[in-house]
Design brief:
single chain, mainly alpha
C-alpha cells in the first residue's frame, strides 16, 4: 500500500515536472508529455496552461519570448547581478551532483526549466525514501528542496512571472504564475545598481555556507 504522504509527494512531483516542461522549449515529444501529465495533476491553473499550450506553443514563439532580446529571461544568472555567475553555476552543479541529477531538458543548468525539473526530482527522491520508511533520507531531500528554492528558484520566479504577465501567451503566463505560487518572492534584496562590477551583499560571504545541505561537495560545507 502507498501511504498518503507518498501520494502527495508524487502529485507534487508531477506538478513541478509539468511546470518545468511548460517553461521548456517545445521540441521532440514535448506535447504528449505535457498532455499526459495534465491528466494526472489536480491543479486547475496548470491544467489550463496545458490546454492553452496545445493552441499557442511553437518553437518560434518560445525563442521570440526567451531568446536574446526577448521580453523574458529564463536563466537565473540574468536575475542575480550581484553574484558572480560562475559562483552561482558552481553551486547549482554541486546540488545536481550530490543528488545525481541529470535533466533531460537540453538547457543550461540555471535555466528555469532545469531548476524546476530538479524540484520534481527531489520530490520523487523524497517519495521513494518515505515509501521505504527512511526518514533520514526523506529529511535530506526535503531540506535540499527548501534550500534550493531559497538559494536559486526564488531569484527567478517573481521577475519571470512579471515579464510574462502582459505577454499575451496564456500557457507561459499560467506556468510562471504557478511557479511563483509555489516559490514566492526573492529571499535576497538586490542592491542598488551603479557599478558594472559584481556587488557582494554584507552577508554574501556566508551565502555558500547557507546552501550546504547533504554532502561535503556542496559549496561552503565546513570541513570536518
Amino acid at each position: 500500500m502507498v501511504n498518503e504522504q507518498t501520494l502527495n509527494l508524487l502529485s507534487a512531483a508531477a506538478e513541478w515536472r509539468l511546470i518545468s516542461l511548460l517553461l521548456a522549449c517545445p521540441r521532440g515529444d514535448w506535447r504528449p508529455q505535457i498532455a499526459a501529465l495534465a491528466d494526472e495533476v489536480r491543479d486547475e491553473p496548470l491544467r489550463r496552461a496545458a490546454a492553452a499550450m496545445a493552441l499557442e506553443a511553437s518553437e518560434g514563439l518560445y525563442h521570440t519570448t526567451f531568446g536574446p532580446g526577448g521580453p523574458a529571461a529564463p536563466r537565473e544568472v540574468s536575475h542575480r547581478e550581484y553574484v558572480v555567475p560562475g559562483q552561482s553555476l558552481a553551486e547549482l552543479l554541486a546540488y545536481y551532483e550530490v543528488f545525481a541529477f541529470h535533466s533531460a531538458i537540453d538547457e543550461p543548468p540555471d535555466h528555469v526549466a532545469v531548476e524546476v525539473d530538479f524540484m520534481a526530482y527531489l520530490c520523487v527522491k523524497q517519495a521513494y525514501a518515505v515509501s521505504r520508511g527512511d526518514q533520514e533520507q526523506s529529511d535530506v531531500a526535503a531540506d535540499a528542496a527548501r534550500r534550493f528554492v531559497d538559494d536559486h528558484l526564488a531569484s527567478i520566479a517573481e521577475p519571470l512571472a512579471k515579464s510574462l504577465a502582459g505577454s499575451g501567451i496564456a500557457y507561459l503566463r499560467l506556468a510562471a504564475d504557478s511557479l511563483l505560487r509555489r516559490v514566492g518572492p526573492p529571499r535576497y534584496v538586490v542592491p542598488a545598481t551603479g557599478s558594472a562590477l559584481p556587488v557582494l551583499l554584507p552577508d554574501e560571504s556566508s551565502f555558500a555556507c547557507d546552501a550546504a545541505i547533504a554532502d561535503d561537495r556542496l559549496p561552503g560545507k565546513p570541513s570536518r
